[in-house]
Amino acid sequence: MEKNKPNSTLQKPLTSSMEDYLEAIYNLGKEKRVVRVKDIAKTLGVKMPTVTNMLKTLSKRELIDYEKYEYLELTKKGNRIGKEIDRRHNVLRNFLVSILKINSKKADEEACKMEHAISHSTLERFVEFMAFLQSCPRAGAGWLENFDKYLQHDRDPNKCLEWMKEFSDEFKDTMETIKEEDKGRGTQQR
């Protein structure tokens, strides 16, 4: 029975606090040569003993390599998770700043809350939508309908170019029709 206990700990989902630590360690690792407990404490605004306790937990889950009083680093698995959390955070933050025009500091705080509060599948769809907004032109009344097509075509930005051309061709046809109608109205009024 005791043998299964560590495995059950490894299987439990990560808490939002654990994710915050992994994201902080990931970002600190990009900025500094080595990551220290005091750097994490400063980044997260917590006391060093709190950090030490969490590091023990993350170490048991094989997400970091850590020995007391030493530097620490993310394992491959920890790095993958930290990188993904950072990606989600940045997408949400960018949406809040770029689209909703929320100030950077508030957007950062809100993005952190959002990344933990919504389901993984909803967040992933949101991330996909943001990628769609960033890579596909917003042309025509039905541009949102192209989101479904984008998902069905493996998120291929080349498909976006096809849709833009379709819209452009439709727009040209519409403009030609309007010109013809205007000409027709002009001769009727004479």
Q: Could you walk me through the main structural features you see in this protein, from its secondary elements to its overall organization?
A:
This protein has about 190 residues and is mainly alpha-helical. Among the domains are: about 5-80, Arc Repressor Mutant, subunit A (Orthogonal Bundle), CATH 1.10.10; about 135-190, no CATH class. The chain has helices at about 5-10, 15-30, 35-45, 50-60, 75-100, 105-115, 120-135, 145-150, 155-190, and strands at about 65, 70-75. A two-stranded antiparallel ribbon has the order 1-2. A hairpin with a 5-residue loop joins β1 (about 65) and β2. The protein starts with a helix and ends with a helix. The relative contact order is 0.07. The mean pLDDT is about 80.
Key features?
9 helices, Arc Repressor Mutant, subunit A, mainly alpha
What is the fold-level CATH name, i.e. the topology of the domain at 4-80? Arc Repressor Mutant, subunit A
Computed structural class: mainly alpha
Strand order of the largest sheet: 1-2
DSSP helical segment count: 9
